[in-house]
Design brief:
The chain has two domains: 245 residues, no CATH class; 93 residues. Helix content is 62%, strand content 11%. The protein contains eight helices and three strands. Strands 1-3-2 form a three-stranded antiparallel β-sheet. The longest helix has 72 residues. The protein is elongated and about 135 Å long. It starts with a helix and ends in a 33-residue tail after the last helix.
């Protein structure tokens, strides 16, 4: 009695040989001519460099937008400080006009210096806003040109990849899409149908069975496709076929209720668009792998849109009730003089002018 282990090993070898025969056209790496492969790799390298460049421009725009928003926050703070310094100076000037000599020249210069410093700081912050806006616009203009070049490179690269994919999809399908002579017999129950109607139904049933018989060979071949996701049943549902050279024979009743038909035909398998797209997807992944890997375009943004994005603007702060500014004239001067009523702060007061001081000694002119 033959050794069962030896028989099992021989069956495995036969099965492996069948897998190699059917799967050789699919599981192996696709063959791309060296010049064409080199060109694809060069295109991909340029495209990756452009993606990196756009990413750097985007980061610079985001950083400039953050600086601009920070400057806007600083301006609001400096405007409040500037209004307070101006109000303090005006209050001191008013008090000095009403009570000359109480406020020393050093104190008055201190008010003037603080007002001047607050004005300079506010002016510098506003200039920074303009500087950041200019930088953002410059980056946006530069990025628009780079983004247009990226789109051109992307279109060229993906077009050439698709051309390679289409060629190899056609080759792989033709490798197994061969015609096959089949002969099948099918019978149907007639029921209440007339003889001509039952005969026609029998012919249709025989055609369908012939299509299925020829498609099974096609499906079995495609099960060797590397990384194929469809099950054999799902795959068979996607396969169609055409029948040519149809010959119907042996058409007769079987008993009193069934009609039988034998068909001999040539079956040419065909595939649906969905199945072709899945085959193309597997080949496309292999092309990407051979050229260096698939490029992720999801993070690529048009710098012009990024620069004008509403999210780039700083969210507005909630409005609060305006706080009353305490007059420095009251806080610093009231140690030596009676308290005075706080001066009203104008919305946009004119630039402060120092009031002429009353001279304590006579002035001689010649």
């Amino acid at each position: 009695m033959p050794d069962l282990h030896m028989i099992f090993c021989r069956m495995q070898m036969v099965f492996a040989a069948m897998v190699f025969a059917f799967g050789n056209a699919f599981a192996g790496s696709i063959d791309i001519p060296p010049d064409e492969l080199r060109d694809l790799k060069d295109q991909r390298a340029l495209l990756v460099a452009k993606v990196t460049e756009l990413d750097n421009i985007g980061k610079q725009i985001i950083a400039a937008q953050a600086d601009r928003n920070s400057a806007k926050t600083t301006i609001r703070r400096l405007e409040a400080a500037r209004n307070k310094a101006r109000s303090d100076l005006e209050a001191a000037q008013k008090f000095d006009r009403e009570r000359p000599g109480v406020i020393s020249p050093e104190q008055m210069r201190d008010y003037e210096d603080k007002n001047r410093q607050a004005f300079s700081a506010l002016k510098e912050a506003r200039e920074n806003i303009t500087k950041y806006e200019i930088k953002i616009n410059a980056l946006s203009n530069e990025g628009s040109g780079q983004y247009a070049e990226f789109l051109r490179l992307q279109k060229s690269f993906e077009r050439d990849v698709s051309r390679v994919v289409d060629v190899h999809v056609d080759r792989k399908i033709l490798a197994v899409q061969v015609s096959k002579e089949v002969q099948v017999t099918e019978r149907v129950a007639c029921g209440e149908d007339s003889i001509p109607v039952c005969k026609e139904r029998s012919k249709k049933a025989a055609e369908l069975k012939a299509i299925e018989r020829g498609s099974v060979v096609f499906v079995n071949s495609f099960t060797e496709v590397k990384n194929f996701k469809l099950s054999k049943e799902e795959l068979r549902s996607e396969v169609q076929a055409t029948l040519t050279n149809k010959v119907f024979s042996n058409q007769h009743f079987v008993g009193d209720a069934e009609y039988e038909t034998t068909i001999t035909a040539t079956v040419v398998p065909a595939i649906s668009n969905a199945l072709r797209e899945q085959i193309a997807g597997a080949i496309r992944s292999e092309v990407y792998s051979m050229t260096g890997g698939k490029i992720d375009y999801s993070m690529v943004q048009d710098p012009a849109q990024l620069a004008s994005s509403p999210q780039a603007e700083e969210p507005q702060e909630s409005e609060e009730a305006p706080r009353r500014i305490k007059s420095p004239a009251k806080s610093k001067i009231t140690e030596n003089v009676p308290q005075q009523e706080e001066p009203a702060v104008q919305e946009e007061p004119p630039p402060p002018q120092r009031a002429p001081r009353k001279l304590e000694k006579p002035v001689f002119t010649f």
